[in-house]
Amino acid sequence: MTERKESLKIVEGVREKAARIIDSSHDLIQIDETAIETVLIPRIQKFLENQKAEGWAPAGGELPVEQELGVNLFLDVINFCYKDPYSGHEYAYTNPGQFKRATGLLQALVDSGVDWNDFSKVSAISAKQWTEIVQLSPNNPMYLGEERGERLVKMADYLLSQGIPTMTDLLDSIDYDAINLVEFLQDTGLFIDEFQKRSQLAARMVSNVLTRRQMTPLSGVENLTVMADYRIPQVFYNLPGVVTIKSDDLLYNLVYDVPLEPGSREEQALRATSVTIGKTVAEKMGVMEADVDGYLWGLSQEMVKRGEMSIQHMMVATDAY
Questions:
Q1: Do 261 and 267 form a contact (C-beta atoms < 8 A)?
Q2: Is the separation of the CB atoms in 51 and 58 below 8 Å?
Q3: Which residues share a beta bridge with 100?
Q4: Long-range pairs for 220-224: beta carbons < 8 A, 24 or more residues apart
Q5: Which of 107, 156, 170, 276 lies deepest, with the highest CB count within 10 Å?
């Protein structure tokens, strides 16, 4: 029991940090608890109705289950903003069917032909192969595009060095536990972030694959937080009253795509809204925070498509999220 309490500190610390930041950021942002209940939650519920009607499913479902699990694990090794904060270029991917996706990194990995369940194969991905997989070129840039390929190889090498050659071996080594996976990923040195965004997301996405494939999901998913990224806060300040930007300077930077400093009060305040508001939404809806994270990310994509994001998402030169 003591060991379990120690393990949970890794995510409990995220909630505590977010609460402290919100308490000290009243000059930057204002959260309206009433608007969470009257504006945000009804909009999430409407999104879920639309999603159910459309029968949406993520890329990768056509792969063998072990490969889909591997795709989702390795995606989160490199799953941070695709937009260069200095040039403004966004990554775009066109799959063999000529379907273009502005954030198609997952689809690129699925289409690659790499066996993501065989970590020795991932370890062998060359710089040239990576360039071809994600279609990197002067006309199709990606923020830290080449470095992402290097990270995939480093992750595979680390797994192999720990005697873990496949996803089944990895899941066995963490006892099919989400918090154990978060801790394991932190030990790789490739998921450095006080908010634990990408490591937690990897655990959620791996568990989601198991659930979709009618397999036993990871235990401990209920302990994960909503992920502190760049898109979810954008939902809040683009919906009436949920989050109001109090700082004129911060609002200017958001509207005009001016990069924020990594680790700045402004960046941390916006990221903290994801965790704190997400926890409130989960409690009011009676669901897990990890589920709310998926709802909010999906809602952000819907709002982008509908032209409802009049204020831009924050721009930060970071690989934390």
A1: yes
A2: no
A3: 94
A4: 220/177, 220/178, 220/179, 220/180, 221/178, 221/288, 221/290, 222/288, 222/289, 222/290, 223/8, 223/11, 223/178, 223/179, 224/11, 224/178, 224/182, 224/200, 224/288, 224/289, 224/290, 224/293
A5: 156
**Token pair in block for residue 198:** 């990408």
Q: Please write down the HEC assignment for all residues of 35-104.
A: HHHHHHHHHHHHHHHHHHHHCCCCCCCCCCHHHHHHHHHHHCCCCCCCECCCCCCECCEECCCCCEECCC
Residue 14 phi/psi, 5° resolution? -65, -45
From 315, 309, 318, select the one nearest 195 (Cα to Cα). Answer: 318
Contacts 24+ apart (CB under 8 A), 33-39: 33/280, 34/241, 35/239, 35/240, 35/241, 35/242, 36/242, 36/277, 36/280, 36/281, 36/284, 37/284, 39/239, 39/240, 39/241, 39/242
Non-local (6+) Cβ contacts of 86 within 8 A are 259, 317
Angle, nearest 10°, between helix axes 289-305 and 197-212?
A: 90
Identify the H or E element spanning 293: helix 289-305
Least confident of 86-90, 92-96, 100-104, 279-283: 100-104
DSSP state of 177: B
CA distance 114 to 153: 12
Backbone angles phi, psi at 221, to 5 degrees: -60, -30
Among residues 98, 39, 82, 66, the alpha carbon closest in space to that of 244 is found at 39
For the segment 111-161, what is each residue's pLDDT rounded down to a tens digit?
A: 999 999 999 999 999 999 999 999 999 888 899 999 999 999 999 999 999
Contact present, 72 and 120 (Cβ < 8 Å): no
Longest dimension (CA), the chain: 54
Tokens coding 65:
């289950």
Region label for 241, one of left (φ > 0), alpha (ψ between -120 and 50) or beta (otherwise): left
pTM assigned to the model:
0.93
